[in-house]
Amino acid sequence: MRWAVAAVLALAVAAPGAAQTAEPAAKEMVAPAKGKKQPVAKKAKSEAVPAKQLFGAVKEPAPLAARSIGFYAKGCLSGAKPLAIDGPAWQAMRLSRNRNWGHPQLVRLIERLATEAKANDGWPGLLVGDMSQPRGGPMLTGHASHQIGLDADIWLTPMPNKRLTEREREDLAATSMLADKISINPQVWTPAHVRLIKRAATYPEVERVLVHPAIKKALCEAAGTDRAFLHKVRPYWGHHYHMHIRMACPKGSTNCQAQPPPPSDDGCGKELDDWFALLTKPPKPAPPDAKPPKPKPQLTLDQLPADCRVVLGAGAAAQPTATSKSGSTAAPTTKQ
Ligand SMILES: [Zn+2]
Were 229 and a residue from 201, 209, 300, 313 both cysteine, which residue would form a disulfide, CB within 3.0 to 4.6 Å? Predict the structure, then answer.
């Protein structure tokens, strides 16, 4: 039942276009930096079950040291902390999903962004969408990333001046910043949005802030001479209801796989032109003999870093399906 509800809610806020894959952008979400390979868990036949079912079923964090393990779109999280559902300058949304978990540094970052934006930017408070599951990992619905506790979706809807009920946090719809598929809506887009996104991108521990290309364009136009933050604001499909904040691998997470740093130029020129060309390109008609696209194979536990098996099995919340003959019960590596 719970999953059915979660699935419906995920559809309700899924950004149109989010499923598209486009060449200039695909690497934004999914490409790790070249070089460091992660050891993967040993293959066991009993584990063909998709990892999202295993990680999606766990309700509590792994009682281990805080570590982001693997890559943003292929990994897990130990020692997660929850973001409080209410704070002095934020409210967590969609509580039924149980995705208000992150690396402790991500939790601190959101708390700081919320309070500083409220104090300085004329932003009344954050509505915080999905972070990670209690042990990270792939999710039953939505996101390819958000797996290692370093990603957070922050709504671009200002926080209402009241404490939302649990029901309201499920039902309230996020506001799109777009008037059409390539332009910002001046009725909803404000200078406070610019200040909020700029603040998020200015924190040194934030490596990227993903927004829709039309939002990036609006930021390019509003930035004036202070353009240093713009290179971290990366255009991407969807992301017109929320911005997606991505932290760099924290110190101490030795098995965290970094993403290449964003290009150093402000990205307001050719890159953005390419995006708009892509957004306005008419869809190609499929050839008459086209086969339906193959469904993407699901990540299994044996494809995640080996330590994710330990994360999944740690503590009282151990999942019987997560352990096997080859499953490790040893203590996780505690290199910090
Ligand atoms: Zn996101």
Answer: 201
Spatial contact of 332 and 307, defined as CB atoms under 8 Å apart: yes
| Cα distance from N-terminal residue to C-terminal residue, the chain | 39
Task: Give the pTM.
Answer: 0.83
Domains of the chain with CATH codes: 65-281 (3.30.1380.10)
Question: Exposed, middle or buried: residue 35 (CB in 10 Å: 0-12, 13-18, 19+)?
Answer: exposed
Tell me the pairing of strands 90-92 and 126-128.
parallel
Task: Quote the ligand 1 centre to 142 CA distance (angstroms).
Answer: 9
| Tens digits of residue pLDDT in 261-298 | 999 999 999 999 999 999 999 888 888 888 888 888 89
User: In angstroms, what is the span from residue 326 Cα to ligand 1's centroid?
Assistant: 34
What is the Å distance from ligand 1's center to 46 Cα? 31
pLDDT tens column, 113-156: 999 999 999 999 999 999 999 999 999 998 899 999 999 999 99
Distance 321 CA to ligand 1 centre (A): 28
